[in-house]
Amino acid sequence: MSASALRERLAWDATAGEILDQTRRYMLIRPDALMGIFRRLPGPALDEALAALEASIFEQGSDSARAYRAMGSEGATLARVVAETAPQLGWGNWRFDVAPDLMQLEVTNSPFASGFGPSDRPVCHAIAGMVRAVASLVFARPATAREIACVAMGEPSCRFEARPSEQSSGGKSA
C-alpha cells in the first residue's frame, strides 16, 4: 500500500454529496470549526467530550486500521501505512516508533492542536484514539494510549505513547 493509495481509492461523488474509501465515508471540516466546539465547553464537560471523541475515533479508526491490515499491512508496516495516510486526511505528519511493548508517535502540525489553540491540557484525543486502534492491532491485544505532549500546551510537537494492556480501558486512555 503506497502513500498515495488513499487518494487513489477515494471516490468523490458530487451528486450524492459524499467522499468514500470503500464503505468508509469521509467529510471535510475545518479544524477550528470542529475544535471550537470543544474550546467552548467548561472543564468537566470538555474532558468528557474529548474522551467521547477519543472513544469514537478508536471505534471507527479500528475499522479503518483493520481495512489497511486486510490490504496486507501488519505490525510496524501497519503503523507506517497509517502514518502515510494521516497527512492525506489532514491529520498532520506522523512518525511512529514501534517496539514490542511500546508504540510512540510524534505528530507535527496536528489539526486538533492548531484548531483548539492554547490549552492547559492535551487536546489531540482524536489522534490518541487512532493510536490506540493501531496499537491494539500491532500488539494483537487491547492497548492504552495517551498524549504525553501537546502543541496546544506550548510543546514543539504532539507526542503519544501506547502500550499493550491486559484489559480494555473502556474507551478511555490511561
Quick description:
33% of the residues are buried. The protein has helices at residues 5-9, 31-39, 43-70, 75-85, 111-116, 125-138; strands at 11-13, 18-21, 24-26, 93-99, 102-108, 143-149, 158-164.
Describe the structure.
The model is unreliable at 168-174 (pLDDT under 50). Helix 3 runs parallel beside helix 6 and helix 4 runs antiparallel to helix 6. The radius of gyration is 16 Å and the shape is globular. It has helices at residues 5-9, 31-39, 43-70, 75-85, 111-116, 125-138, and strands spanning 11-13, 18-21, 24-26, 93-99, 102-108, 143-149, 158-164. It is α+β, with helices and mostly antiparallel strands and 174 residues long. A hairpin with a 2-residue loop joins strand 2 and strand 3. The strands form two sheets. Strands 4-5-7-6 form a four-stranded antiparallel sheet, with helices on one face. The chain starts with a helix and ends in a 10-residue tail after the last strand. Helix content is 42%, strand content 22%. It is built from six helices and seven strands.
